[in-house]
Design goal:
This protein is α+β, with helices and mostly antiparallel strands. The chain has seven helices and 13 strands. Strands 1, 2, 3, 4, 5, 6, 7, 8, 9, 12 and 13 form an eleven-stranded mixed beta sheet that branches. Strand 10 and strand 11 form a beta hairpin. Helix 1 packs antiparallel against helix 7. The longest helix is centred in the middle third of the chain and has 16 residues. The two termini are about 20 Å apart.
Length: about 280
């Protein structure tokens, strides 16, 4: 659980609310148009080999969207031309809209299907092919462990929310009204009442990581849906901009070996402000 931090650490947290003039909060902004977003994606390539292309996606950019919406999928034809690729790009694996991190693309249909099946089989074998990192408000009581919960969509007012189901029944699971989910976590570093966590989801469900972290009583910084936009770190209230991501896809394990994407600058800036090692 969160503890009492030092005055120096508290001062560092205040820096999150008031970035200095030299600080840039990098990330996709909703004000960016297709051309600016395309340039951002072109500069975010972290791996290119054969039919495979890996990007370091900024938070806030959806992978799929409705016709006319700005999304990664809508920009793929233009991105292919900008990068001089001969064939159409397909999305193999990508983080959710609110996350930053690795997006795996392929220009070969058979490679796309082969890798998608590889990730599915890996989960069935009990492996963890995707690794995320998140900064949390609060430090878990245990250094490592697993978070297991049933998750379900529930209508709350005019919007649908993902909510935990403490003890899902067999019928609800069979009807797929509720899905059993599991995330493995490990504390990489902690200072005061904050921590840098490694997260490895065994299952895939929308907003799984954010809900699991709230069940751990350590909500992710940048989670504006399952925790308040105004958080408290070391007793100091501060506001997080919508550009912050609740989690970053750090690593994907492929048959040929792991692929990694460095955290975005705003994520590293937050670590420095809190005095958390980057690992």
């Amino acid at each position: 659980m969160a503890g009492t931090g030092s005055a120096a650490a508290a001062a560092a947290v205040r820096g999150l609310a008031r970035p200095g003039p030299g600080t840039r909060t990098a990330g996709w902004r909703r004000l960016l148009g297709p051309k600016e977003t395309l340039r951002l994606l072109e500069g975010s390539v972290v791996h290119r080999e054969g039919a495979l292309l890996a990007l370091n996606k900024p938070p806030g950019l959806p992978v799929l969207g409705r016709p006319g919406d700005l999304s990664l999928d809508a920009l793929l034809p233009a991105l292919r031309r900008r990068l001089g690729l001969p064939a159409e790009l397909h999305v193999v694996k990508a983080p959710a809209r609110e996350y930053s991190g690795l997006v795996l693309l392929s220009s070969c249909y058979h490679t796309t299907k082969k890798l998608q099946q590889f990730f599915t089989d890996a989960r069935w074998r009990g492996q963890y092919p995707a690794t995320y990192r998140a900064i949390t408000v609060g430090v878990p009581a245990e250094v490592e462990g697993e978070i297991s919960a049933g998750l379900s969509w529930q209508q709350q007012g005019d919007r649908a929310m993902v909510v935990p189901v403490p003890a899902p029944g067999r019928r609800s699971l069979a009807r797929k009204d509720v899905k059993s989910t599991l995330t493995r976590y490990r504390v990489l570093s902690a200072v005061g009442g904050c921590a840098l966590l490694q997260l490895q989801p065994r299952t895939a469900f929308p907003e799984q990581l954010q809900v699991h972290l709230t069940l751990l009583l350590c909500p992710a910084l940048g989670d504006h849906k399952h925790s308040s936009s105004v958080g408290r770190v070391l007793g100091v209230p501060f506001f997080l901009s919508p550009e912050s991501a609740p989690a970053h896809t750090q690593e994907l394990v492929l048959p040929e070996g792991p692929l990694c994407a460095p955290p975005p600058p705003y994520f590293l800036h937050t670590l420095r402000c809190l005095g958390l090692p980057e690992h």
